[in-house]
């Protein structure tokens, strides 16, 4: 393999695939990046066996096609510190990668390309194309509600469901549930219900940045492939059935509380300073036009916050985990929110005012 | 501000002896060996009036108080009573640090019942200990361990000294420097050489001077003298836990017997959790085989609970993971990662079912409280088992 390419493009490509590197693995090759030059393209591949990432970039001059793997960390550190210039990369049969830029020359020990795991190919049964901002919104507003408890594997993922018209993304850790729906058409053959590891979605979110470009999702039985321009991310899907979340979405809640999102968010954030010294519990008391938030800690002290609200129905007294409210209030972008409540031990339903396709159900804490 | 109790049983060994032999009441009692080289391990308050104190050579003690009743100690008896006393402490706070058989720190910050002051809780604790064991204790209440310990010493026996938050330095000031932990004979001598006699004198010193004289221990000394003490109450076990275990009369190989025993223990643990208003976030299973090899397996619960069913199910799953089983001598189950029920995060999914289960458990607790533990029984546990449940250890 021998080619030249732009240092800037090469570095960017290396950075975009670096998150699928397995840093603590018993398989050393998983800490490597696979480089393959063919035609007028260079392909970079990384995988930790759960997710895999590839990035292609144009090469300047290709003298010899071929492939090699080298430790990603080393290559990254060397390239990051090179001046902006044309890079010349060359590998030989002794698994050495030589990298030249100006007067700098590095020879890095690699491993044979054949030993690198082959990323699974995803059948193109279902293909969804979404504008970047729509996918970003789907992920941002749900992914945080997924569980981090590995003993409940299914809940560490987000459900992606598609019936040909509506894409639903849902996540729950059993204490709260976030559901976002958007209308999407596409190449539909059957109902899709894929559980995507939240971690993979986090990487997709990172790759999306603020891009407006469309993203294609190829959904197979065991894998999902995201195609974002030059970069592709393939993730295994979590096997199993996502809990029937529809049945925990409360209906007919009698009490409705409207508040300014930012005001509520800031009040919760401040009260959380006290709440987190104990169990993160914040108690809500509502009067017709005022909501009082209280947190108490024997060690730290007491917090008391008041914000103006509009209340329909009887006054409310209920306790929530501050973090569960902060999470959702941070990702909503509407000016007002609506919190629908039943009894003190029944779930609350939170929505952005004017965002009917999003809902967040949060279970309260014990009120004693 | 933290609230910490230091509890010290009053003349513990001597008090236990008096309890077991009421004829000793009012008499000077000394616990210790009788040989000339023995020392006093404990002395009743009556004996202390003669100047007898613990660690004093027995010969000297008997010269001071010739009519003293000398009793050689019965450690296993003291241990038993100590277990009972500590079990009472645990009902006040799950975070307890025993210092010895008769002394413990309790982290009370998060565990003071709403509407009760620290002083009221301390009095209730003293009354409970007296009512359930017949023994008295002294309690020191303060924002830190060292001040609490000094406070508990101050008004023995049956003393209760509450040092209000912010009042630590003023409380310590008039006391002799020897009362401070960390001030040994050598340090005391050096300090008195400088004219420092009270803790207040020490608290007024320059940090630099103390650092020059005592090195790194200097600033520590100053903090201590000013009542600044952030050291945490350290439970003996990493996780706060509540457990029960059973030793079988003969080693058990029958899986059914193990499971039924586990269920009975889980029932016990769950009831005890409910009594204390706590929920468990984890379960530990303990197995000891005939060769005295002990294994423990632990698992976290998806949702904190005070119900027997999930505790048992988790314990059984852990038991399944221990196969193949050797003949079992002891089986135990502990609830770990305890939090207050009042702080429990409810779950979206089985909220209805859990609420029903809790109602049932509360009803059963009520029936048992009124008509005795055996008034209601799980069908599975009815068949009389020939197994002997000889050891019930609440501190497993």
Describe this structure in words.
The complex is a heterodimer of chains A (368) and B (396). Chain A is an alpha+beta fold. Helix content of chain A is 18%, strand content 44%. Chain A has helices at 7-17, 72-80, 132-140, 198-208, 261-275, 322-331, and strands at 2-6, 32-38, 41-47, 51-58, 61-64, 66-71, 86-91, 96-101, 104-109, 126-131, 157-162, 166-172, 176-183, 186-187, 192-197, 214-219, 223-228, 231-236, 255-260, 281-286, 290-297, 301-312, 317-321, 336-341, 348-352, 358-362. In chain A, the strands form three sheets. Chain A has a twelve-stranded antiparallel sheet. A nine-stranded antiparallel sheet of chain A has the order 6-2-3-4-18-17-16-10-14. In chain A, a hairpin with a 3-residue loop joins strand 20 and strand 21. The mean pLDDT of chain A is 93. Chain B folds into four domains: 4-10 and 78-162, Alpha-Beta Plaits (2-Layer Sandwich), CATH 3.30.70; 12-75, MutS, DNA mismatch repair protein, domain I; 168-225, DNA polymerase, domain 1; 239-392, 2-Layer Sandwich (Dna Ligase, domain 1), CATH 3.30.1490.100. Chain B is built from 14 helices and twelve strands. Chain B has helices spanning 12-20, 45-48, 58-64, 75-92, 118-133, 145-154, 168-172, 185-193, 199-203, 207-214, 217-225, 255-276, 308-320, 351-371; strands at residues 4-9, 29-32, 40-43, 69-71, 96-100, 103-107, 137-142, 160-162, 241-252, 278-289, 294-305, 328-340. In chain B, the strands form three sheets. Chain B has a five-stranded mixed sheet with strand order 5-6-1-7-8. In chain B, strands 9-12-10-11 form a four-stranded antiparallel sheet, with helices on one face. Chain B is globular, with a radius of gyration of 25 Å. The interface between A and B is medium-sized, with 25 and 23 residues.
